[in-house]
Specification:
With 362 residues, the protein is of the alpha/beta class. Helices cover 47% and strands 9% of the residues. One of its GO terms (molecular function) is nucleic acid binding. Residues 149-337 form the Integrase catalytic domain.
């Protein structure tokens, strides 16, 4: 450099680009307008002539922002009408992607894969096209206290009480029919998270004594079918399962321990920790109570229908949940415990009030 000559200024275009692409191109164009030389401008910004030429072209087009890097033409893309059907079915039913795909294949005769539906819903979720979706935790991941999918059959049993007489779930005519014929008001549900095998009982009262009776019946049924695993019943904070009474929970655990079972209370307000059994209540409403309750007028008829429903759910109805592959709960159970007979799925739904009175008050 000669004496009195100004030193050359060198800028780093990449550093400016990372901060703001439009600002980086504006600065480059300002230098180019002063020098009138593409090569000198490229040298000053430690970049190539092609980058400068691109900035000039964008300036002529009137837009210095980056263009989308997505493909202009997407080959084998799903038709817009099909995507609309997928999104509409998801919004109207709240089904998971596997069940949405199954419904479209069976009822609308569409040849569509589960993975295709999953990708369509993923794009729709980003665009905000899905209604009423909520994340189950702050980072969007499901909250679990156990590794459910590595548990052996019946090691973890989600347990819950469902109010059958629910105005939000039942149509008005079904609701009043249930009242008129004095059918059972509460459904007690126990569901194995590994296989989805479910057991049901009913009652007119939601008492802790009925809850204790339900535990004992489930344990006796499983032990009678040679299930020797340590049983963990996961429950919410309802009074029928012990609630806030630490004394009841402590005494209940002492009682169940010799039977190889225990009770785990989920976190307060975290219904997703009992997600499988909570979701099954909706299936009860949609596939059993709403279509069948109006045909039932006596308790004997009610319990016969309930028994048929439990048998259908466990041995005939395909499930699209994680790891189920559209199989039945018994098929999932048989793959792991081939020696268990099918009659384990034939748990008799009974009226707990009639049984718990012989136990006496807790």
């Amino acid at each position: 450099m000669k004496t009195g000559q100004q030193p050359e200024v060198h800028l780093n275009y990449q550093s400016l680009y990372k901060l703001n692409p439009q600002t980086a191109r504006s600065a480059m164009l300002e230098v180019w307008s002063q020098t009138g030389n593409i090569s000198k401008t490229a040298l000053m910004f430690s970049t190539t002539r092609k980058v400068v030429q691109l900035a000039i072209k964008k300036h002529e087009d009137g837009n210095l922002a980056d263009r989308s890097h997505g493909a202009i033409t997407v080959h084998n893309r799903t038709e817009v009408k099909v995507e609309e059907k997928v999104i509409a079915l998801k919004n109207s039913t709240k089904f998971g992607y596997r069940r949405v795909a199954k419904n479209l294949r069976e009822k609308q005769d569409l040849n569509i894969k589960d993975s295709t539906v999953r990708n369509i819903l993923k794009r729709a979720r980003v665009k905000g096209l899905l209604k009423g979706e909520k994340l189950r935790s702050s980072n969007g991941k499901p909250v679990r206290f156990y590794d459910w999918y590595s548990a052996e059959p019946f090691e973890i049993i989600q347990t819950d009480l469902k109010v059958i007489l629910d105005k939000k779930a039942l149509p008005q005519e079904v609701y009043y029919h249930t009242q008129r014929y004095n059918l059972p008001l509460y459904q007690w549900t126990a569901e194995c998270v590994n296989t989805r095998v479910r057991f049901l009982c009913y009652s007119y009262e939601k008492s802790f004594t009925n809850g204790l009776t339900f535990y004992l019946m489930i344990i006796a049924w499983l032990r009678a079918h040679n299930i020797r695993a340590e049983l963990v019943f996961t429950v919410d904070w309802g009074e029928e399962f012990g609630g806030k009474s630490r004394q009841k929970i402590t005494d209940l655990r002492k009682l169940l321990k010799p039977l190889g079972a225990t009770v785990h209370q989920n976190h307060k307000g975290q219904s997703q920790e009992n997600g499988f059994v909570e979701r099954s209540h909706r299936t009860d409403d949609e596939e059993f109570y709403i279509p069948r309750l109006q045909t039932i007028k006596t308790n004997d008829q009610f319990f016969l229908e309930s028994f048929n429903w439990v048998w259908y759910y466990n041995t005939k109805r395909g499930h699209t949940g994680e790891g189920m592959k559209d199989g039945t709960p018994y098929q999932k159970l048989q793959k792991q415990y081939y020696w268990i007979p099918k009659d384990i799925c034939a748990f008799p739904p009974l009226l707990l009030d009639n049984i718990s009175t012989t136990i006496g008050p807790w």
